[in-house]
Amino acid sequence: MTILAIDSSAKAASVCVANEEKIIGEFFINTSLTHSQTLMPMTEQLLNNTEIKIDKVDAIAVNAGPGSFTGVRIGVAAAKGLAFSNNLPCVSVSTLESMAFNLLGTEGVICAVMDARCSQVYNAMFRISGEKFERLTDDRALSLSDLLSEVRQIDEKIFIVGDGAEITYEFLKNEIQNVVLAPKNKRTQTASSVALAALQKLSEGKTQSAAELMPFYLRLPQAQRELNARLRQN
User: Among residues 63, 117, 101, which one has the least CA distance to residue 200?
Assistant: First the structure.
């Protein structure tokens, strides 16, 4: 199975082509350019450089959230467009789960975190033992204080990964001795980890159509929350 994976859920953007045997190619960029400027040109160039035609791809995978509302929408829209125009199935991947796949080969609990602002993080917990991967919690938005209360109960080594890793580590490190900040090259979500997560789902038949693929938000966008607050006041 050959899969084309996309990530634009935060500041960085990346695309990857992979199969069960290897990562065939990956482009990654982390600049001030918007994803609408970079994502599709990177995809086209990657397919050209790997000499893989889109009709030889078996599925399109994407980090469908949580993450930046704009970034997630761009990534999902790109995946839907590629899948619909080429009649390909889609694989929806949790951004938090894909980041945990960065640390395959380690032993311990993976605490994946994204900065959700408003004194919260998007978080999910996983356990990895070599190549074995287990989800421990659903994706959720919670305060760092609540996260601290939860991870106090864990005796294993805890690896902090994600674009919220530094703020989370600084909050936890003086309270918990078994937390480790993942190295920079393993900390950010990448399309290659989206591909690894998606290949597992693809083998289990967990696909959906382009029409069914939707962004996954853990909370409403700021503008909608402000509108709802005004409506309640009125």
Answer: 101
